[in-house]
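Example record for the data management plan.
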Amino acid sequence: MMETQEARLKRMAMRSWRRGMKEMDLILGPYADAHLAAMSEERLVIFDKLLHENDQDLLPWVLGQSLPPDYLAELIGEIGLHARARLSAG
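Corresponding structural encoding:
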């Protein structure tokens, strides 16, 4: 059975908040809450692939300590900007 769009967004939001590494929960969770609903289909596919990456790889990518794969670079950049904006606002 195909996943409905509502179930897909809910699954992706939950996976963003429950990563296994608290730092990634606090980076991906708020980003997902702010952006998932408005993402294009193409961006949702990329974000879903990102959710399957290891936190030990994701965190250095978001922090700019190592380069992400090309297909994730733009999204990782946006997630990093979002996280930094939240930190500076708080």
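Summary line stored alongside the record: The chain has five helices and no strands.
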